[in-house]
């Protein structure tokens, strides 16, 4: 009996998590699937980062071994590690790493996963209430206990149940914002196997219900690796943006704005209506977005974590019309031309007529049949 008790305690102890461990009490692991970084990149890992400067042989500080990764978080730059052995949430329970905040700490850094070389996952924050950093009990302020700490290593763990099903071929550790922050150090990036029998994959990101702008799921993808070029030593990329209506009512009015979006001029976004204040809306050829349907537009931006966010949405109140839903049909595509720097295509015109059936300003009171949301 005493031996059995010792074995049980030892097993439970192996699942405990704190700032000196690796795994959470809620995450069972079955060993390491792959090491992404441990003094050097793994054999199946490639450096596709655009952060400058960066160093993969930083010798001080280190969490273990001889080296760590260092980079200066600024202007949305990122450490981008491409994986030949992709991460599959159905068999992977977590991704963990250690982070050091140098002399200052509290850097604003996010983590994203990529598929087909494009960031597609939600943002995992390294600060605030939703931080993936394990709470540090030695920090008196609860609000700061899950931030990157100054002068010490803290453990960050990403629960792969918070990833949509699929194959993720890369991980990006990126600056959030344009400000130049204190240098950050990263070490011991590991991918952990799932205990499939006791802890099967659960898609925690699957929406059970939604409200307002949360029902519009936005996905930004690079159009093609050939649709990129350099101008004045700045790299540009063509993107396709998909907005899917996951509500059970049709969208009649949709307004949105760029989150991180760096176009050269107004012609670098198309199949949108141009509204006041830098907002965009549905073009004349898209009258309604029915439940489950997608609205698609294109854009060109400086290469980076391009994003858009919904600022206002109105849903149809007449549910009977939903039975006759039809796919969204776009009018003829705008003409294209080849840029003078490197071969690619981009539209040369934009919609010049604002939609008359859609408001260019937001109502000050909430209509009974409309849903107002904040940016």
Explain what you see.
- This protein is mainly beta and 375 residues long.
- The chain folds into two domains: 32-193, Galactose-binding lectin (Jelly Rolls); 216-321, Immunoglobulin-like (Sandwich), CATH 2.60.40.
- 3% of the residues lie in helices and 36% in strands.
List its traits:
six-stranded antiparallel beta sheet; 1 helix; 375 residues; disordered C terminus; mainly beta; CBM_49; Jelly Rolls; single chain; Immunoglobulin-like; signal; 2 domains; 23 strands; disordered N terminus
By DSSP (H or I, 4+ residues per run), the number of helices equals 1
Q: Mind telling me the C-alpha Rg?
A: 23 Å
Please give the CATH architecture of the largest domain. Sandwich
CATH class label of the largest domain? Mainly Beta
Q: Beta-sheet strand percentage?
A: 35-45%
Write down how many β-strands occur, each being a DSSP E stretch of 2 or more residues. Answer: 23
Major β-sheet profile: 6 strands, antiparallel
For this structure, the CATH topology of the largest domain is: Jelly Rolls
How many structural domains?
A: 2
Fraction of residues in helix: under 10%
Query: Which overall shape is indicated by the principal axes computed on the Cα atoms?
Result: globular
Structural class by helix and strand composition: mainly beta
How would you name the CATH homologous superfamily of the largest domain? Galactose-binding lectin
> Could you spell the SSE succession in H and E letters?
HEEEEEEEEEEEEEEEEEEEEEEE
How far apart the termini lie comes to 60 Å
Average the pLDDT over all residues and give the rounded result: 80
Enumerate the spans where pLDDT stays under 50 for 5 or more consecutive residues. 1-25, 318-375
